[in-house]
Amino acid sequence: MEHVEIGKSYICKPIGLTNEVVGTVEHAYTNTVVITVEDCHRTDRAKVIEYQHRMLVRYEDVQQQIGIALVG
Model's pTM, two decimal places? Predict the structure, then answer.
């Protein structure tokens, strides 16, 4: 993905997981971004918790920006 913005949410596939997640970009590096995982597949939940919801994603594995509405 060409342009990834800090603070925006994306569908992506973090390094070490088998399924896609929804995550908010926290920091951008040369080849990767750090995300906070907002939602994930139940089979990946234990690993997401182990990594305290923060994971690395390669730029090429960031797929689509999404909008999330939080209803409280």
Answer: 0.85
